[in-house]
Amino acid sequence: MNFQKSRLLVVVAVLAATISCKQRPKEVSNEFSGSESCIECHENFYKLWEPSYHAQAMMPINAEFMAEHQLPDSEPIDVEGHQFQVEFKDSTMVLYERDGNDLVNTYDVIWAMGGHNVYTFLTPFEKGKLQNIPLAFDANRKEWFNYPMAGMRHFGGDSPDDEALPWKDDMFAFNTGCYSCHISQLNTNYDLATDTYHTTWKEPGINCETCHGPAGEHVRIFKALKEGEEADELGLISTNVFTQEQHVASCSPCHAKMNPITPSYMPGDKFFDNYNLTTLEDRDFYPDGRSLGENYTMTEWMMNACAENSELHCVTCHTSSGRDRNKDNPNQACLKCHNNRTQDLETHTGHPASAGLTCLSCHMPKREFVGRFLRSDHSFRPPMPEATIKFGSPNACNSCHKDKTPEWANKIVKARPNGNYQEETLRWAQLIKEAREMKWENVDKMFEYVRDPKTDDVVANSFIRLLGNYPDASKAEVLIDALNNQSELVRSSAAYGLGGIFTDEVKTALLKACQDDIRLVRIQAANSILTFPQDQFTAEQQKVIRSAEKEYVASMTSRQDNWSNHYNLGLYHQNKGEMTEALNSYETAARLYPPSVLPLINSSVLYSYVGNNEKAEANLQKVLEYEPNNEAANLNLGLLLAEQGRMDGAEKALRTALEANPENQPVAAKNLSVIVAQRGDFAGAVKYAGIAYKTRPEDPDYGYTLAYYQLQNGQVSAAKKTLEKVINTSPEYLSATAYLAEIYVNEGNKNEAIKLYKNALKLEGIAEQDRAAIQQTITMLQQSM
Prior knowledge:
Elements: H1 43-49, E1 58-60, H2 63-69, E2 77-79, E3 82-89, E4 92-99, E5 102-109, E6 111-114, E7 118-124, E8 130-132, E9 135-138, E10 143-146, H3 147-150, E11 183-187, E12 200-204, H4 208-212, H5 216-223, H6 244-251, E13 258-260, E14 275-277, H7 298-301, H8 305-308, H9 314-317, H10 332-342, H11 345-349, H12 359-363, E15 366-369, E16 373-376, H13 385-391, H14 396-400, H15 406-414, H16 423-436, H17 443-451, H18 457-466, H19 475-482, H20 488-497, H21 504-513, H22 519-529, H23 539-555, H24 563-575, H25 579-592, H26 597-609, H27 613-626, H28 631-643, H29 647-660, H30 666-678, H31 682-695, H32 700-712, H33 716-729, H34 734-746, H35 750-761, H36 768-783
Antiparallel strand pairs: 1-6, 2-3, 3-4, 4-5, 6-7, 7-8, 7-9, 9-10, 11-12, 13-14, 15-16
Helix pairs in contact: 13-15, 13-16, 16-17, 16-18, 17-18, 18-20, 19-20, 20-22, 21-22, 22-23, 24-25, 25-26, 26-27, 26-28, 27-28, 28-29, 28-30, 29-30, 30-31, 31-32, 32-33, 33-34, 34-35, 35-36
């Protein structure tokens, strides 16, 4: 038997691209004048905005900050084995790091962010970075806490918990993470060659021009007006004329868990021309769509039936400075459509009026996420205690009734007149859970949800992305249909999901998607269609592809400091056969963020391909320094070492890969069967080959391998049964027919062997040379009888 040479190539797309200003008013210039230029004419609004959380999203640490916020010094708090302590002195804030009684380092803290729920703080770091310090202040509990540790997610069930990142990790750097939502008109001034920043911004906090665009022309127009004159044009973006979609899109750059596909966004533009959105494929969501991690609202909002069936949008309930318009009357926003419910809240809620419940109590409960941030559930869905029972997700009933069980709450919910309202959510949530676990017994039901036009966009999109792990090409028909979905998000994910499926139908569908009205769809289609041999397209078709490809490449070059952009650029070059460029991109990604294992894994495959096994092994060993049990790295290392004849190391690595994913790692299992067989352990070979075949019963090669070792181990009857199964499921796999016929001949049963070969001749599509060889074998067997 030969080692299986196929390698696992990890492909994860994280996008980034170019800005469209189609909806930007022609009179708007690119000159930003700052919020102070608004005071003269808009003093009242300025006074409302200035103390808001938007205005104070980022604040300098000075005497004014200390006087207003009056935060206490911290006690020593353990972070990564060292003691950290914050002290305020006069107008300065200092962080001390100690190892026991020894002072290790002192950090000047110069900026504060937030304060609504949590204050986080920034200190200058090397290469022009501002780094979040490891201590943060809980504004609700009035206490300091370990910020990185609070960011851990606890997934529950059989899933391992998340791990806290080191506090000096780039993910905690202001320049790469939180900058865009805490300051206004930023320029990172990033230098890729030196990996340094010279970051500048117009002003801290979220200012007027973040929502209205540059106001320089606006100021000039109105300062030039004579008394009694009216302006012919406004000179900036007026949100008063925004549609529901534009209002939501304008807030979502800071209130969505997303990946940018453009370098900047202008209010009024379409969200999916500038961003890609995270949905329920991410474990930061429970399977039923409730948030487990910090997901910033928009994904839940897209699951909101009220928003879908009305003109409800962000500014319906919130002022542009972030305040709650209905603070004094929380039910106000709901009255327009649900006045019948609010007239008798006791009947609707099942609680007495004295309980003080509002619509928000049950439909927008607050949840504390990682880092102690509070967010209201913006899906507006009713409590679903049965989802808590099945998936561990939170429900509003038990958020208040903490002394009661979800079973208690579920019994009450089901006794209501419409007590079956949970059932549909539970159905698709169970399928989301199965898809995450790569259990495909109910894949047809997943297909049905994707095809059903009534399916929520987020749910349909989540299934499409999760089906990326489904190995059968039967999904292509479903994804092609999804390219006609009304949701641009669903279309984009369908286009990406078709990558690697090389049929004429897919090619035609992707060509159409390359011309979609929405940029996100076009660049995802380009990503997939570029995997086709380009000589399959006409000159006119190639022109369409080049246009989408240009946007796709721009999406990966707009953020030069983002390692994932360089990783995706590596995939792009690799698909085009540009190996040197691909390796350069992968190496750049790994240099920018050493813990990023994906570029190291993919580059190792390419280094092996070009014959540089030493570099291939070195990169895989780097991965294992960060993640010793990484499945892909161990698999590729095992295959690499096996090819070099270093069997002890290969066996160890392949065993680790198999243990990391025992239910879905046939390549490791098959190659382990080869390794242990070489030392005469045929029982072990049967065991591993059996694991591979059980994992991929549709692949006849795994069945053939199992039968081969069963025969070597003296299990003749078992080998025959395995080969019969392979022939039944994959009759065109003639090696199984020949092997079973050989067994029959060795047993002296040539008639059964001839019968097998004659059945094979009845198959359609057999190559003429194979047909001739089979006929010749039959003749020889008949003559020898």
